[in-house]
């Protein structure tokens, strides 16, 4: 199977859910509506063989709509194919359904994404902070997060 065949099968199955497809330097990126992320990911794993979630992260496009993009890096071990799947998330509703029931790897990756960026993963089995202390306020990778952090004085550096 080729990446273009994967995209064609996704478009045939999900139609308007597929918002965009881009190929760049041999890498394929497909953008889908966040409301269908679980159905799309289930189809990719069970029907198209993308049995390994290698990474999950998010991007902050401060000042644009949608503000966030959740990015899933998928790999098909049997076909040796890589696919990047993206889902736009609005700032006013920074939530998306968890895919931890599809790939258990998503559990910790989604926790990190919430901890650093503030995107809530609906129905996540363990929505605790994973990197920051439990009492930490805010999400440090957001572009509008204070550079010095909420509890520190600006760094003065060494004066000689």
Distance between the termini: 64 Å
- CATH homologous superfamily label of the domain at 3-105: NADH:ubiquinone oxidoreductase Nqo5 subunit
Structural class: alpha/beta
Strand coverage percent:
25-35%
Count, helices: 3
Shape: globular
Could you give the order of strands across the largest sheet? 1-2-5-4-3
Main sheet?
5 strands, mixed
Q: Would you identify the regions where 5 or more consecutive residues have pLDDT less than 50? A: none
CATH topology of the domain at 3-105: Beta Polymerase, domain 2
Number of strands: 7
Write up this protein.
There is one protein chain. The chain is an alpha/beta fold and 160 residues long. The protein has a domain at 3-105: 2-Layer Sandwich (Beta Polymerase, domain 2). It has 3 helices and 7 strands, in the order H-E-E-H-E-E-E-E-H-E. The protein has helices at residues 3-14, 37-46, 106-117, and strands at 18-24, 27-32, 52-60, 68-76, 81-89, 95-97, 120-122. A 5-stranded mixed sheet has the order 1-2-5-4-3. Strand 6 (95-97), helix 3 (106-117) and strand 7 form a beta-alpha-beta unit. The chain starts with a helix and ends in a 38-residue tail after the last strand. The mean pLDDT is 93.
């Amino acid at each position: 199977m080729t990446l273009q065949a994967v995209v064609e099968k996704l478009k045939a199955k999900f139609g308007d859910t597929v918002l965009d497809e881009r190929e760049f330097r041999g890498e394929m990126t497909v953008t889908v509506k966040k409301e269908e992320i679980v159905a799309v990911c289930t189809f990719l794993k069970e029907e198209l063989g993308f049995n390994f979630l290698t990474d999950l992260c998010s991007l902050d496009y401060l000042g644009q709509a949608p503000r966030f993009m959740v990015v899933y890096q998928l790999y098909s071990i049997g076909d040796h194919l890589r696919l990047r799947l993206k889902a736009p998330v609005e700032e006013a509703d920074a939530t998306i359904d968890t895919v931890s029931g599809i790939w258990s790897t998503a559990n910790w990756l989604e926790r990190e994404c919430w901890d650093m960026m503030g995107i809530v993963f609906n129905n996540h089995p363990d929505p605790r902070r994973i990197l920051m202390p439990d009492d930490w306020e805010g999400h440090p990778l957001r572009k509008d997060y204070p550079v010095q952090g909420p509890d520190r004085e600006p760094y003065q550096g060494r004066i000689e």
